[in-house]
Design brief:
By secondary structure, this protein is α/β, with parallel strands linked by helices. The protein has a single domain, classed as TIM Barrel, CATH 3.20.20. It is built from 10 helices and 10 strands. The strands form 3 sheets. It has a 5-stranded parallel β-sheet with strand order 5-4-3-10-9. Strand 6, helix 5 and strand 7 form a beta-alpha-beta unit. Helix 5 runs parallel beside helix 6, helix 6 runs parallel beside helix 7 and helix 8 runs parallel beside helix 10. The relative contact order is 0.13.
């Protein structure tokens, strides 16, 4: 077994073989979405409960019927919720949907409280309040936050299963914009840190893993690429290689060059 296989992703005592999480929105069609998810070999798939709720037929527009939930883990999310109360209500619906899929022990919820419609930045106070309530109701809370080390630690201390700081705004494809704060969050955390939002291509997912992130969650980077299935596969390998590079340990940076091979005595004299 490799070091990668010896250290699988564990969230709330549940182990997952992949450290890549994928969203289900923004694809051209369900066929493309299903193929991309299968190729990625992601273990955790996040679905917006509000989108399911608004669908005329349960599951048809959200891949619920098209995916094998015996192999995948549903991560319901509260995307689109602007208030604490709304996020709590949608979280309860998410847990009900997970149980209907046969995941009776699935209490996971990706918590998003986003009152800002322009920049889609999460509300730190609302997120903290909603997380406190949901944890008391036995939810496994994975909160989506700005890269704020203090908030990340507060959420960990109240019992969140992970923290999910954004790399950059949702759907922006700007990559990792605040690496210093992300490193602080990762170094301070005793729970998994999942980089969520803003990743645009495979090298950025790899970079997030090289920093020491436990996983990455992305959607638009795959769904809006020219060839989503190809990008899904690229993301799969970049997450694996980034994790392996992190475990291997980066070489020390030096100001001066250093020869790869030592000089042979007497060679230069001749």
């Amino acid at each position: 077994m490799t070091d990668l296989e010896k250290q699988p992703l564990t969230i709330d005592k549940i182990t997952f073989p992949s450290r890549l999480m994928l969203g289900t929105g923004k694809y051209k069609n369900l066929h493309e979405a299903k193929n991309s998810i299968e190729i990625s070999q992601a273990s955790i798939i996040t679905v917006a409960i509000r989108r399911i709720q608004n669908a005329k037929t349960f599951g048809k527009s959200n891949l619920i019927d098209g995916l094998d939930w015996r192999k995948l883990w549903l991560l319901p999310n509260t995307a689109g919720c602007e208030t604490v109360e709304e996020a709590i209500r949608i979280a309860s619906l998410g847990r009900e949907i997970a149980k209907k899929l046969g995941q009776t022990d699935n209490n996971f919820i990706k918590l998003e409280v986003i009152p800002d419609p322009k920049y889609l930045l999460p509300d730190p106070i609302g997120t903290l309040k909603a997380a406190e309530y949901l944890i008391k109701k036995n939810f496994t809370v994975l909160p989506y936050i700005s890269p704020d080390p203090i908030l990340a630690k507060q959420l960990e201390e109240i019992g969140c299963a992970t923290v999910m700081p954004l790399g950059s705004p949702i759907g922006s494809g700007q990559g990792l914009q605040n690496i210093s704060n992300l490193e602080i969050i990762i170094n301070n955390a005793k729970i998994p840190v999942v980089i969520d939002a803003g990743i645009g291509t495979a090298s950025e997912a790899g970079k997030a893993m090289e920093l020491g992130a436990s996983a990455v969650l992305l959607n638009t980077a795959v769904a809006k690429s020219l060839k989503p299935q190809h990008m899904a596969e690229a993301m799969k390998f970049s997450v694996i290689s980034g994790r392996m590079a992190y475990l291997a340990g980066r070489m020390e940076k030096r100001l001066r060059a250093q020869p790869s091979s030592p000089p042979v005595e007497g060679l230069l004299e001749k």
